[in-house]
Design brief:
The protein is α/β, with parallel strands linked by helices. The chain contains 15 helices and 13 strands. The chain starts with a helix and ends with a helix.
């Protein structure tokens, strides 16, 4: 991040550059596309294009890569969820499309397992739908899911997670329950894109699957949905091009994309599906080892452990501090890192542990973090 940090573009606006040790978070700008993606976007910037042609062909390219029927690039995963829900409510009917978010007379209930409720499930309600819960906060059975489907159920929302413990209905079970009843399943796969066979399974299993493109190196403000061809086409009929393309009064006009972003998504996905991920993860481990060496022997440090996880970044560094000896807890340390220049933002794991994600660090950031954290731990 050193080159970016030297630029005055942020400082002229009175904004501090940040060393991002938290991850691909929207509050920190989401992602940094790599050189190949930036180059493709730069080439796209040199000419105008018929946007509908670009959307059609980019969707076909994504669908071919993931071996699904169809795909559509969106302005992020939340937009993909909203457009998918709208598609399930209206199909391609122009009158119904123009009616949203007024859902009167339409199937407008989206079924969700109560144990799957999460912050971003509000995205399903954007086109006027209402969430209906199935099961309890701890569990849901296929029978409970089936019993909750009613005449106004437009879709089943499913939060795709790598840590399914069997207490709730799995994605495959949700499809087995819903599809014979004529109810499509919308899977929120946001960052569930590695290992690659897992990514493809998440894309292929539900009727519509939604992903955030920032997680595989595309622009922060982009994502895509994919799956059943008729439903993808219906989602596109709600999109930002619908006004010009089909004369529809689509609510998705607010979800506009640049041509450069669309090209960036396709390019980044191609790279993600062909790169050597063992090397990618090894690079993260090397950054963590650099941090561990830099912190070795620091006062008030109990441990600096590499912790493996099932997320696409694979590893995180957990730094446990001696709060009593230092005179402050992990939150206090994080606050000092935040207040410095450059600002360093980390995650917290309880009162005594700082969690550092390295996949959003730029070259050399890990050494800056080790130096600053070592100084703070020294009191």
């Amino acid at each position: 991040m050193t080159q970016t940090r030297d630029l005055e573009v942020y400082r002229r606006l009175g904004v501090r550059p940040v060393i991002n040790a938290q991850g691909n978070r929207t509050v920190l700008g989401g992602s940094t596309p790599g050189p190949e993606v930036k180059a493709a976007m730069d080439h796209a910037d040199r000419s105008y294009v018929k946007m509908q042609d670009l959307l059609d062909r980019s969707g076909e390219a994504i669908a071919e890569m993931l071996e699904v029927e169809a795909a559509y690039v969106t302005s992020g995963c939340a937009a993909a969820l909203a457009l998918s829900t709208a598609a399930c409510m209206t199909g391609c009917d122009p009158g119904k499309i123009a009616q949203l978010p007024d859902a009167a007379g339409l199937k407008s209930e989206v079924l969700i397992q109560k144990a799957h409720r999460y912050s971003y499930d509000r995205s399903f309600t954007v086109p006027g739908a209402r969430l209906v819960e199935a099961g309890t906060g701890d569990a849901c059975s296929p029978e409970q899911l089936a019993a909750a489907i009613g005449p106004d159920t437009a879709a089943v929302a499913f939060l795709i997670r790598p840590d399914d413990d069997g207490s709730t209905v799995s994605l495959e079970q949700a499809v087995e329950v819903s599809r014979p009843r004529g109810v499509p399943v919308i899977g929120d796969g946001a960052a569930q894109l590695y290992p690659l066979d897992y990514f493809r399974r998440n894309a292929q299993t539900p009727d519509l699957a939604c992903f955030g493109a920032k997680y595989f190196g595309a622009p922060h403000s982009a994502g895509f949905l994919c799956g059943n061809k008729e439903l993808v086409e219906a989602a596109a009929d709600h999109g930002f091009m619908a006004f010009q393309h089909k004369g529809a009064k689509a609510f998705g006009r607010t979800m506009k994309l640049d041509r450069q972003e669309i090209v960036g998504v396709v390019t980044a996905l191609e790279l993600w599906l062909t790169m050597n991920h063992e090397d990618r993860l090894l690079g993260y481990e090397e950054k963590i080892e650099t941090l561990q060496r830099g912190l070795h022997g620091a006062p008030n440090l109990k441990s600096a452990a590499m912790v493996r996880n099932k997320n696409f970044w694979g590893v995180t560094l957990h730094v446990e501090i001696d709060a009593e000896g230092l005179g402050m807890d992990a939150n206090g340390v994080a606050s000092l890192l935040d207040e410095g220049d450059p600002c360093i933002l980390v995650n917290l794991e309880g009162d005594h542990t700082i969690a550092i994600n390295v996949h959003t660090l730029n070259e050399g950031d890990e050494r800056i973090i080790a130096d600053r954290l070592g100084d703070i731990l020294s009191g």
